[in-house]
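Appendix B, example 12.
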Amino acid sequence: MIIALTIGVLFFRFNQSGRALLRDFSSPAITTGDRVESEVSDRVRMLQSKVELIQEITRLEHERVEDAVRLARLDELQRLNSELKKQLHLTIQLPVEMVHARVIVRDAATGGRRLQINRGAAYGIAIGQPVLAGRFLLGRVVEVSHHLAYVQTVADANCHVSVRPVGTRCSGILAGTPDLSSKVRPVIQVRHLQMDCDIRKGQIIETSDHSIAPPGIKVGVVLDPADGPQGNERPDRTCTIRPYVYDQPFTHVTVLVQRDAREL
């Protein structure tokens, strides 16, 4: 048996026909093994491709979210810019810029009708420039040093600003009253309005075309429209209004600065 096995091995080893027969016999198993290995390799590559595809989709999704956030922020900035322009009636050509400042002192002797802010001539601020609290007219600059400025609010009796009732062609002079009893929400007056001016309670008062500030900035709301003069009284009207700036507390203000003054 050993001799027969030896002869068989020698036959398949050294005989060309034997080697061919052995190759034909084993080729199905080899082919099957190769096919399995190829299929496994294809599956591995497919899984890798899926992983890479998932990673790419995830990356693109993150980028899409980031782009959406950026677009939302841009839209918000554009909306705020557009709203501010409408509120201030400013255009790109209007030679003013906004300087933001913090209120550091409220003059108790004037019932808070004069304020000190932490910006001055170094930022282009000059006497006479209008000052806003939020989107409402607060007053005007009356004194300036290099780093500080003093603001006279609309509630001060000496703060004279040209205003108009919304929806009319009338104009009058806004002025505070010397009465310091109302320190939180003072009442002020609009004087020298035309007799035939259509004024109603609740009507909005805004800056006019001849004001220290750009026209259209809201100042207050009419409390008492007054019916006008009777008999030998003065031939003009004076209405009482409540200024908007005192409806809510404020700690920061905005000064509208002339560009050419800023460049000096």
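The longest strand covers residues 96-106. Residues 16-88 form the longest helix (73 residues).
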